Amino acid sequence: MKRNPHDRKTFIGIEVENTKAKGLKTLFLAGAYSTQEAIVAAMGHDAEQIYLAANQSYLCRDDHDWAAAIIGLLNSWKGRFVTIDVPFEFRDQFLNELSGFCFDQKRLIVQYSLHVRDVSQDLPNTYLKLDDRIEDVTNPGVWVWPWAEMLDVTKPNFTSWQAYKEDQDV
Hints:
The longest helix has 11 residues, at 66-76. Helices cover 19% and strands 23% of the residues. The strands form two sheets. It has a six-stranded mixed beta sheet, with helices on one face. A two-stranded antiparallel ribbon has the order 6-7. By secondary structure, the protein is an alpha/beta fold.
């Protein structure tokens, strides 16, 4: 399937990425949809999960309220998972928008996307470091992972593009 973050598109498939929802029948929503539209479409396809902002469409509309969409789905569509794909640079804003809402956090899966081109060009001693802001420390320390270990295609956290080919447009 050709992915375009500007296309408002709905498709159905099995979640192939290594999250709590892996293996579930999923309604993928690329673009902004109302809570009602999402639930009706999910129920019409017996989906067990709704995946918001598919195809890197988080920024499809400046005025879309992702927090309201998430809360609406979690409160109206009981017992099912909701996943959202958030570009990492919007993490703080996203968490801020969700703060103050009461919802079942165990049913919300947040994936922070780091868009990295051609990882094969990276040097052998490259690491991913989760750090803190030095002027306002809030974490207990730092976390460091070897880049090569993360990029190992034999590990369960890797999903090849081939796995996405079974998704079907709705």
